[in-house]
Structures are given as structure tokens and as C-alpha cells.
Design goal:
Layout: E1 3-8, H1 17-23, E2 30-34, H2 40-49, E3 53-58, H3 59-70, H4 73-76, E4 79-84, E5 98-103, H5 105-114, E6 119-124, H6 133-146, H7 150-156, E7 161-166, E8 170-171, E9 177-178, H8 182-193, E10 198-203, H9 219-231, E11 236-245, E12 251-261, E13 264-271, H10 280-292, H11 305-311, H12 329-339, H13 347-374
Helix pairs in contact: 6-10, 8-9
Length: about 375
Amino acid sequence: MVKYFGIIDEATFKGYSNTVKSLLEDVKDKEIIDLSLDNAEEKVLEAGKDGKISVVSAADMGIKFFEKVAENKDVAKNINLVLSSDKFYDIEMKNIKNISLVMPEEAISQYKERNPDVKISSYPADLVASSSKKNIEERASDFARLNPITEIISNVLSGDAKAFFMGGRVSLPDGSFKENTKEIFAKAGSDFVKDGKNGAIVFHGLRSFTKGDKSNDFEPVNAFYDALKKGMLNNQTVVMLTKEEAEDGKRKSIAKIFQKENGIVFINDYNLQDSTFPAADYYYLLNEVVKKGLDLTATVEQMNFIPEVLELGADRTKFKPYKWELSVPSNHAVYQKVFDGKDVKTQKQAFDELVRNTNTKNIEGIVLNNFAEQR
């Protein structure tokens, strides 16, 4: 059987780590390698000397890593390269000769057009890989165990209430970013409260508070708070799971409760305890919203949102995506397919098909070799 290597970059918050881990969740013979901690290229090339292996990574990070590995042509012929992404990255494949793509059809078409000399095996999938329902519920439970304020959030979400999953900057085809702006965030804050409903908001822990270079950027989030405060109606309550800048220059988790009574907005901040599970605050609210059958509203660049709420058993008719400037056309296309009720496949389903095909080819190769030796 083929051994799989998952290439991530968790230590520097590059992202896509959960995607790669989810894809490889059911693969028995695998090794997860963090680019920031391990000598990934050396490990992969050493393993490739001894026989066929598969290397799985994501987005522009994956392409750049594959390019380095493919420079060693003698070993690269033993390596199956598998790229997962939610969109197209316009990065030339100079050394890569063969690659398997697990992503939306729109992105696959762009890669084929951009790289006509590369042999591309395609496994179309509109939805990115998702954590399992069990995994999501474990994260949600751990956050609730550590933070009693979740009782307040659950009460706020009772009745005619709503939630909002707020993202931020999105990567572009050339690897740069559409950076957050005060104007874009302020509009989102204003839009959320204008109907007067109570609600809860969780901000993406990386994209909402940083620039593309990972430096802190709280001005857009502060503009969101200000616009929300100005737009609130009487007897409206909004709870936000968010972050603020810590003394060491990093970020710490807090909850902010905005309540408007008699024309005055009262604001209370609560420190939150971070779970050992990544993004536990996000998963807590995700699970709570699905349990209560509320509308499913997220900024559309968050491509993990759809498969995760579907994994939890959400009703598709509850999808009400928030379309804004910090997204790309392929993001909108996927949300529209879900909204229209079309049959969509997850990247995990497509990747499992790829694994089955790879194993079948590997077995066929062994049989043919044994037959040749017997002759």
C-alpha cells in the first residue's frame, strides 16, 4: 500500500492544516509533516527513494512545496502529488509533470488552462474536507466546559434570534490577499443589527484580526463594533466571541456583550479560556446554531462552513450567505450550488475515491510485476 505524507504549516498559522488532516483521517499509513517544524522536503525525498508515496497538501503552500520536491526528477517520478484547494492559484508549475487535483470544477479548469503541459488527474469536489460530527461536538463541548458564558449565549439565541460567522481577508490567485478594511467590516456590523434581532457572532481567529503578513490588524474589527453599536435598536442584545491584542503582541480571546436599553448601549467584556482544540469558540457557536435550527449565515469566503454545518445535520434551506467584497467568484459559485439544492461532493469524498484508485493501480502493478517474474 502507498504511504501518504500530509504537508501542513500549522506553526506559522498558514492555514489549511485542518483540510489536510481531514483528508488523511481514514488513511492508515500516513505521516503529517509541519513545514515550520520539520525538514519536510528532505523527509519526503528520502521516503520517495524507496518506492511510491503520495504527498498531500493545499493551496499555494502546496504548489510551492511540490515545486521544490519535483526539482529532484529521479525521486519525483515515485511521488504522487495531490493538491487540495477551494480556488485557483496562478502559480506556474515549472517542475511538476503530474498532479492530482481535488477541488471545484471551476478551479480545475483554470489549472488545466494555465498548465497545459502538466498531466492533471482531476477529482472534482465543491466542498472542502470537514471535521467529523464527533470531532466538532468534542470541540464545542470543551469550549462550553471552560466558559460558563455559553449559558448566556444559549439564552440570547433562544426565540427569534440569529448568528453570524464573520471571516476576513481572502487569498487571491497570485498568493496575495484582499486585506480587511474598516469600511467593509463596518458595513457587516451595521447589516447584522438593523433588523433588531438578538444574536451571537464569532470572528475567524486568524483572518479577522490580521493582515496577510500575519501582523495584528484590529482597526477593521473595531469599526465593526462601532457600526454595530450605532445601529442597535432598543432591547437588542448581541454577544461576540472575539479577540483583543494581548500585552505580548499576540491575541487573547474575549467575549463582548452589547445591550441597548432606553437608548443607551451597555458593553461588558469577559475573558475566555482557550480550549486545547483549535477554533473551539467557532465550533461551539456552529453546533449551537444547528441544534436550535437558526439561519446559517457566514461570510462566503469561509469554505469550511458549509461542509461542517452539513456534517452536523443542518437544513440546507437555512443557508443565508453574506456576500461581501472579501471573497472570490468561485466562493460565490459554491454557495450558490448549495443554496440551489444541487448535489455537491466534499473533498473528503473525492479524495477517498483517489485513494481507492491509487490502491487499485498499486495492486495491479504488483500483480503485473509478479506475473512478469514468474514468466
